[in-house]
Amino acid sequence: MIDFLLHGYGTFDRQKSVGPAEWPHFDLLFVHQGCLKLEFSQLEQAVELEREQGVLIWPHTAFRGGSDGVKTRASVQHFSVKGAVLPVFQDLERLRCGYSLQAGPADAQELARDVRRSLALAHLPQSEEVVEARTLLLALILRLGQYRRFGPPGAMPRIRLGELEHWLRGAIGSGVGVPELAAEYGLSCSRFRALFYEEHGQAAGAFIRAFREREARRLLAETVDPIKIIADRLGYADSVAFHRAFKHRVGMTPAKFRQKFRVYG
């Protein structure tokens, strides 16, 4: 379940700083106006947040900060997580001493609108329906924000293959590889490879290649898209590269595979 605590706006300038503080719960901080600099003493790291940027501060993380003269308006949402059902919250339960920095979306205004909607819901009578709406909206904000995690290695989330495949399906056309996947988790390539192998017993690169092959088989069998279009959707340089890779892995050409396994109806 999600236990919603303090949720509201704050204004900061040279006279009014952020913290120092250390909470036993999560603190989702989002800047609506101005800019804010935060320091995390335990991690010896600092971040600067501009308008329509946010950070999720994990439980038991000491932080402090402020604004360099410009009046800054930010919202805070404190919440705790225990026995969550949604995967996005399950991944948060064991996080301690660190933070997750917003990396998206491309249209930051969309995320800002959702944060404002969440604030509006916090001021309504907290019926079961309102709490459910707040929970789903918070899950959406965390997903849209694509928060990258920074903390001790033991705090890193599990790499869930289902979620990873969902992300790959939307990004595979841009030719993603291990560096892009590692960035999604806020990890170095070497740390991501080690963690992936530790959890799933295979190399991350091999997982990407196998996923691309499964998608190729599915698109060839279930769609009438030209092979050139399928090659582009899967991130290959051209249809020749797709033809060569597919034949090497499957043992037949894409055209032959489609002829043999095409699904009709």
Question: What tags apply to this protein structure?
Answer:
Arc Repressor Mutant, subunit A, alpha+beta, six-stranded antiparallel sheet, 2 domains, Jelly Rolls, 265 residues, four-stranded antiparallel sheet
Please outline what is shown here.
This protein has 265 residues and is of the alpha+beta class. The protein has helices at residues 87-90, 108-122, 128-145, 161-171, 178-184, 189-200, 204-222, 227-233, 239-250, 254-261, and strands at residues 2-12, 18-21, 26-33, 36-40, 45-49, 53-57, 63-66, 72-81, 99-101, 148-150. The protein is built from ten helices and ten strands.
Using the alpha-carbon principal axes, give the shape.
elongated
Q: Main beta sheet, described?
A: 6 strands, antiparallel
- Termini separation comes to 43 Å
Number of helices: 10
Number of domains: 2
Taking pLDDT < 50 over at least 5 consecutive residues as the criterion, the unreliable ranges are none
User: How many strands appear in the DSSP assignment?
Assistant: 10
* Helicity level: 40-55%
Give your account of this protein's structure:
The strands form two sheets. Strands 1-8-3-6-9-10 form a six-stranded antiparallel beta sheet, covered by helices on one side. A four-stranded antiparallel beta sheet has the order 2-7-4-5, with no helix packed on it. It is built from ten helices and ten strands. The model has no long low-confidence stretch (mean pLDDT 86). The chain folds into two domains: 155 residues, Sandwich (Jelly Rolls), CATH 2.60.120.280; 108 residues, Arc Repressor Mutant, subunit A, CATH 1.10.10.60. The chain is an alpha+beta fold and 265 residues long.
